[in-house]
Every structure is written in structure tokens, then in C-alpha cells.
Design goal:
Blueprint (H helix, E strand, L loop, with lengths): L6 E7 L3 H12 L4 E4 L7 H5 L19 H4 L27 H15 L3 E2 L4 E7 L2 E6 L3 E9 L5 E2 L11 E2 L14 E5 L3 H10 L5 E6 L6 H4 L10 H8 L5 E13 L2 E8 L6 E6 L1 E4 L3 E2 L13 E2 L4 E2 L13 E3 L17 H20 L6 E4 L2 H12 L3 H5 L4 E8 L4 E9 H7 L6 E7 L27 E8 L2 E7 L11 H16 L1
Parallel strand pairs: 1-2, 1-6, 2-3, 6-18, 8-14, 9-10, 9-14, 10-11
Antiparallel strand pairs: 4-5, 5-6, 7-15, 11-12, 12-13, 16-17, 19-21, 20-21, 20-22, 22-23, 23-24
Helix pairs in contact: 1-8, 9-12
């Protein structure tokens, strides 16, 4: 006999936003789960980060729509739930809110929903058994069929640079900008934490350089919210206005302390291998974080990718090399890395709703839900346009989550599934001779100035749209056999008869024939 409370179907490790969101969905489904959190409070990461306390996740309180689903498109911080009071705009009216607001929100979310979270329970070791896992804590050992790791970032990522130990990490840097008054400061990295740091000290430091080997990625060019955001534009202005603040593409070869300063040897990326030695008063490492795998036994240690920062995943968010081990939240972004929003609350909240359905199907025998509709062009056209005009999941998880329409030619019916990862759908329905995926996608990116794009508003040139727009694909097994783009629309309303309805209807008529 097992000790009471030590055996569960699911064990979630971590009570950050992902752990709480998954706990909510499992509780609502009546599943047997428990969530373990080493701290005495939820959302430990947001109590420390970002260091300067301003989030980059948008909080658009005022919208033209009153529909709660559509409003979620611009609410990047709320967890999905059935309580109108537990939405983040009730906690902050700031467009870029303070980190302390998300901490308050997540604490209330856990408490008011009565989620089964055991605080002060650190997982010391995860061990694989024949039919599941043993999760060892200081107090007890829990047996479970399935482990979902939602721990977030475990530790800072330290790049392999000679002398990097002389840099002060983002996690321990001084946040008072006066501490850098008159200094020459090197910020190692060119992501949002690097720009956050540089922005905070820009008016105090004599010179700020941001350096990494890769070119700067601006979010307004890449469409990825994890790339450098527009609120940090003052640094780029300062760079172009010859203030000696600079953004450098270079390899940092070595950091050497010389007296109370540092000599940094670099090799420029775009200058025929030119090298230089630059002198700084402070060096700050802002190179992000990586997953900590030390809690896994060697027999169930997950494979990592992307400089060993994140776990490699199968299309259903299961570890690439360990059965029954899943990942949730910001660390579960390998399948849409730098594409959709799986690294952020507004993306992974939908992933976790789908993951719950997949877990329930695999471990509890609950079939994946779907609707049945007649295989008629008019009905499919109406269904698709209703979904792309309404779904916040398809909007936020563009080019990743999709609806699937699977044709049963014998019955003349179509099975309609919602919010599945497209690569998962193609794998799941690889034996089906006729099915469609419905996504929202960005278009061509071969334009020069992202703010001066030449547009072609003809339905037969919809594939040249640059803005987000619906794309319907027909598959035969794993083979893509047809594709229809619908014209972009400034207000993201795809209802016009000539531009959207008629072209999509013609597509279904041709393919269903």
C-alpha cells in the first residue's frame, strides 16, 4: 500500500504561471494531480526578474471589442480561467506592467481556485521506474505515471568566453543606475535583458556597449516578442547619434582584469576579422538563462538543445528521449523557437490547454474532443472564418497552433479539432487521405523597410500579404497538396465577400470535388 497522498497520476514540478495554468486545467478536468513548489510562494522568478521590474508583456486594457475571447489577443499576462475577476487587467492598467503586479495576480489565482500546490516542497531527484517516475523530496517520495516539469529557467546561461567569470551576472548586478555614473560599461548580450540593463544606466554611464556574436534582432522585424522590443529604441538612437554608446557584432575573445578595470579583446564580425582591445570599468553578463537538469537521474535526463538551454521536445511537448516526461511553460519552446509565443504566458496558456487534453487522452482514456460537421464548402467556409476572426489561440500562437478538419469520405462528415500544434496534427493524421489545417501566419519578409511595405490587395495575390492572415492547407497524409492564403486586413477582420468568403469557398469547392 502506498502512503496516502504519495501516489498520483500527474506530478507537476513548479508553481510559476505554467504550473498554475496546468494545475487549473487538470483540476477542472477532475484529474489526479499534485503540484510541487520549492518556495513558500508561487512565481518565484517574477519576484526577482526582470531586475528593473518592468515587464515586456503587453497589457492592452482598452480595446474596441467587448468579447472576452478577442480581448485575450492583447492581454499577454492573464491565465485562462472561467472567472472574469481573475484577469490581469484587473490588477494593472499599465501597458507595460510592473513585475510585482504579476506576482500578486498569480498568488490570487492559486488561492482563489484552490489549486493543489504543496509549497516548501523542493524536488531533489526524479527517478524513472518501469511504469512512471519516483519524485523524491526531503519529506517523502511520490509515485506518478507522468511528470510535467514547469520549473522555468533554472540557472543563468554563462557563455564559453575566456574570463567571463570576471563579469557580473544580470542576476546579481547593481540596479541603482547611479552605481555606473561616469563609467564605461560593457553589456555582454543583445537580448531584452541586455537592453533593459543598458536602458537603465544610459543616462548615467559615460559609455555603454552591447556586444554579442549575432546581429541584433528587432521584434518589429522578426515578429517575435522575445526579440528586442521597441521601448529600448533610445539606445539605438544614441548609437546612431554618435554618443559613443554602441551595439557591437563581435566575438568576445577574452575578458582580463587590469587593476580596477577590464581589458576586453574582441574580433569584429563584419570587418574582415579586425580585432581590438577595449577598456571598461564594468562588465555585465546579460546572456539569459538555461534549464537545470541536475534533479534528473541519468536514466531519465532529458536531451537539451539551443546551446543546452532548453529540452528537446516531441510535437506533444514530451521529452525527445524520455517517455512520459513533459515540459510546460517557457522552457517548452523548442517546437516554435523564435516563431510563436510558447516562451510567454500568452502563448503557453493555450499550449497547456491542449496538453491537458492530450494527457487525459493518453493516461485517462478520455478521447480528444472534436465537433462533426457536414463536408459542405459553405459550412466549412463559415466555420473557418468564424474561427480565424474569433480565436485568441490561433492569433497568439500563429504559425504553430492550428485547427484541423479531417474528412471522412464515407460518411460525408468532417471532424473539427481545435488548437493542435500543426506538426503534431500532421503526425497524428498521417494516415488520413484528406484533411486541412487552419492557421494564422505572417507573410513574406523580403521587404526592406517594415514600415513601408508595398501591398497588393488582390485576392489572387494573397500569398504576398506581409501582415498576419489566415492560411488553409490541405494534406494527403504527411504531404501538403494545396494551400490557400486569405488577404491581410488592417483590423484583422476576414469577412469581406470578395476578398475572403468567395476565395475560401472556391478553395473548398475545388478540393472537396
Amino acid at each position: 500500500m502506498s502512503e496516502a497522498g504519495t501516489e498520483h497520476r500527474y506530478v507537476i514540478v513548479g508553481a510559476g504561471p505554467a504550473g498554475l495554468q496546468l494545475s487549473y486545467f487538470l483540476k477542472r478536468a477532475g484529474a489526479d494531480y499534485v503540484t510541487l513548489e520549492r518556495e513558500d510562494v508561487p512565481a518565484r522568478f517574477f519576484r526577482d526578474y526582470p531586475r528593473h521590474r518592468r515587464l515586456i508583456s503587453l497589457n492592452k486594457v482598452h480595446t474596441v471589442s467587448t468579447d472576452p475571447e478577442i480581448r485575450l489577443r492583447w492581454d499577454w499576462n492573464s491565465l485562462l480561467n472561467d472567472s472574469p475577476e481573475l484577469l490581469f487587467p484587473n490588477y494593472s492598467g499599465d501597458y507595460l506592467p510592473q513585475a510585482d503586479d504579476i506576482v500578486r495576480y498569480l498568488a490570487d489565482f492559486q488561492r482563489l481556485h484552490g489549486l493543489a500546490v504543496r509549497y516548501g516542497t523542493a524536488v531533489e531527484r526524479i527517478e524513472r521506474t518501469g511504469d512512471g517516475f519516483l519524485v523524491h523530496t526531503a519529506e517523502t517520495t511520490l509515485r506518478c505515471r507522468c511528470v510535467i516539469v514547469a520549473t522555468g529557467w533554472g540557472e543563468p546561461y554563462v557563455p564559453p568566453i575566456r574570463g567571463i567569470e570576471h563579469a557580473v551576472g544580470y542576476e546579481e548586478m547593481r540596479v541603482d543606475p547611479e552605481a555606473y555614473a561616469g563609467q564605461r560599461v560593457l553589456v555582454v548580450g543583445k537580448g531584452n535583458s541586455a537592453f533593459e540593463t543598458a536602458s537603465a544606466i544610459l543616462g548615467h554611464a559615460a559609455m555603454v556597449h552591447l556586444a554579442s556574436r549575432r546581429p541584433l534582432r528587432l521584434a518589429w522585424n522578426t515578429k517575435h516578442p522575445g526579440d528586442v522590443r521597441g521601448q529600448y529604441g533610445a539606445i539605438l538612437d544614441s548609437y546612431q547619434f554618435k554618443t559613443l554608446h554602441s551595439v557591437l557584432d563581435c566575438t568576445i575573445d577574452e575578458i582580463s582584469p587590469v587593476g580596477d578595470r577590464f581589458e576586453v579583446r574582441i574580433t569584429y564580425t563584419h570587418a574582415d576579422g579586425e580585432q581590438a582591445v577595449l577598456e571598461y570599468d564594468s562588465v555585465i553578463r546579460c546572456t539569459g538563462f538555461r534549464m537545470d537538469t541536475t534533479l534528473f537521474d541519468p536514466g531519465c535526463r532529458p536531451e537539451l538543445e539551443r546551446d543546452d538551454r532548453i529540452p528537446a521536445l516531441r510535437p506533444d511537448w514530451q521529452s525527445a528521449n524520455v517517455d512520459d516526461l513533459y515540459f510546460a511553460g517557457t522552457i517548452a519552446q523548442a517546437r516554435d523557437f523564435r516563431r510563436a509565443s510558447s516562451a510567454f504566458i500568452d502563448g503557453f496558456r493555450y499550449n497547456l490547454r491542449t496538453l491537458t487534453a492530450l494527457l487525459r487522452e493518453r493516461y485517462d482514456g478520455v478521447p480528444l474532443t472534436h465537433d462533426m460537421i457536414p463536408a459542405e464548402p459553405q459550412k466549412l467556409t463559415s466555420l473557418v472564418l468564424d474561427r480565424v476572426n474569433w480565436s485568441s489561440a490561433l492569433w497568439t500562437q500563429f504559425e504553430y497552433l492550428c485547427d484541423v478538419l479531417v474528412l471522412d469520405e464515407e460518411t460525408g462528415q468532417v471532424r473539427h479539432y481545435t488548437d493542435l500544434p500543426e506538426d503534431y496534427a500532421v503526425s497524428r493524421f498521417q494516415d488520413s487521405p484528406h484533411y486541412y489545417t487552419v492557421t494564422l501566419r505572417w507573410g513574406r519578409d523580403d521587404h526592406g523597410d517594415v514600415f513601408a511595405i508595398e501591398r497588393h490587395p488582390q485576392p489572387d495575390r494573397a500569398q504576398e500579404s506581409a501582415f498576419i492572415h489566415p492560411v488553409i492547407r490541405r494534406y494527403r497524409g504527411p504531404e501538403l497538396v494545396a494551400e490557400r492564403h486569405l488577404l491581410e486586413d488592417l483590423l484583422a477582420e476576414w469577412r469581406r465577400p470578395d476578398r475572403h468568403v468567395v476565395p475560401l469557398l472556391a478553395f473548398f469547392e475545388e478540393n472537396l470535388a
